[in-house]
Design brief:
single chain; mainly alpha; 83 residues
């Protein structure tokens, strides 16, 4: 594994994308790793939004189900006089 957590076998195809034949291989590697990092962050953000959506849905469902567990309030007989 490289220092950034990406091994060479996975980063080499991205280097060729940014490095034309007379190009700079160091800059191409840097741009390739940056692209992989951006893609990883984008996917992590999408998964975190999905997790939050799921948790909020479960919380809403739990709140809706608590309505059926609530008792009706019973007023005392002399609390509200009938006219």
């Amino acid at each position: 594994m490289a220092a950034g957590g990406v091994d060479r076998a996975r980063s080499e195809p991205w280097q060729g994308r940014f490095s034309p034949p007379p190009g700079d291989p160091v800059a191409a590697r840097t741009l390739g790793l940056q692209t992989l990092s951006d893609l990883r962050l984008q996917q992590a953000a999408a998964l975190s939004h999905l997790d939050v959506f799921w948790l909020m849905g479960m919380g809403a469902l739990l709140l809706c189900l608590t309505v059926f567990a609530m008792r009706r309030s019973v007023a005392e007989a002399d609390a509200h006089p009938v006219e």
